[in-house]
Please model this.
Amino acid sequence: MTISHGRSNTLRFDWLTMAVYFSLVVVGALMLYATDHKQGAESFEMTASFSRQMIWVGVSLLVFFLVLVIDWKVWFTFAFPIFGLSLLLLVVVLLFGHEVKGAKAWISLFGFGFQPGEFAKLGTCLALSSYISSVRFSHQNLRTTMIAIGIIIAPAFLILLQPDAGSAIVFGSFLIVLYRTGMTPAIYIFGFALILVFVFSLIYSPYLVMLALFISGLLFFVYQFDDNKLLWLGAVVAAAIASGVLFFQGFRLVSLLGLSALLGVFMVYHIQRRKSQFSLLLVGSVMLLSAFSFGSNYAFNKFLAPHQKDRINVWLQPEKTDPNGSRYNLIQSQVAIGSGGLQGKGFLNGTMTKLNYVPEQSTDFIFSTIGEEQGFLGSIGIVLLYTILLLRITQIGERSRHKFILHYAYGLAGILFFHYFINIGMTMGIMPIVGIPLPFISRGGSSLLIFSIMMAILLKMDMDRMTRF
Model:
């Protein structure tokens, strides 16, 4: 084993990535101070909540540097014990946790709240990276692939029981790691199709979604024709127009039955030309997605509680929600961001921030404070910092000689991307409001501490990237 010492390790240290990390932490501290600072207050007067967050910042930075001293192979060796501990803590919080805003997600320690769900992100990233780095893992082996997926699902399921759907969804980001290891893109395409069908089934009638699915299936069949593609395309377009006219004239079943019959004819034609696998897979997918469309619509209307429906409607159908109720947070956030203009109102000069118009502006909606006080330029600057960080993280993974480091880097990049994309998106109304913090910036000690540890582990790995086992 090659051992790197002193100056060589210092030269290999990724100072740019650490600088971006520190920049985001500093920006977070400044924006949290801005949200707590009230008009007319003394300069640099610290509130109790801001002081508490600064303690977390200090602890996170201290732990960050301590992790840089630890040999990164420790994390590889103890990946599964750490994962097991994270699952145990998720069970403990379900039994003895402290409930905040309807979710039993916190454990109180010495007056501070700790969220085991954040620790589970570290444990899952380490365990998944360790498992798929082993020689026995292969996507051609269904058993090993299902075990890898199980590592992702286990903590997500326990968090869903709290219930904290937003944090549970974030664990889906680890599928990026499996994609990097060679999992077939068809699974991700089908997953994306499920999301689209779910969204459109809530906005429009499932029958209309089914009509669109049938037409899409016919177009895929046309693409597979070996000759006379234009002729077949013209026939499908004519059938689609005729079906659309019948559909909107009230003859929905006639329209759908006609398209389904044509879909069946195309399937038989392709099977006769030895394209049975493609034909059966395509028709099966269309039927499954159609069933999912009706199931999603039914479940939304029959099983979800009113406040859960409101959360989704705020995103997809805002006109159906109360602007003074469930949509209030989003409206105030959008107004705050828009009022910042190009350059913003200036640090500590955000009127909506000062008057506390935006609820949860120090946690879930911290980006609205950035938009108001720093404007479009400041907001773009934050997006650029995250983009640079993600690029540097993936570069660290790609230049490593060890698969564990590669997979860990993509796991960290995936979960950071999900957090910042969803958080910023939900403050502007383009993503659902699911209560996900903005990494390194939102108030929350657990999140800051765990993400700092994960960053330090990666930087330590990068220092020894030339080392082989």
In short: The chain has two domains: 6-183+367-463, 188-303. Confidence is low (pLDDT under 50) at residues 1-6. The CA atoms of residues 223 and 295 lie 29 Å apart.
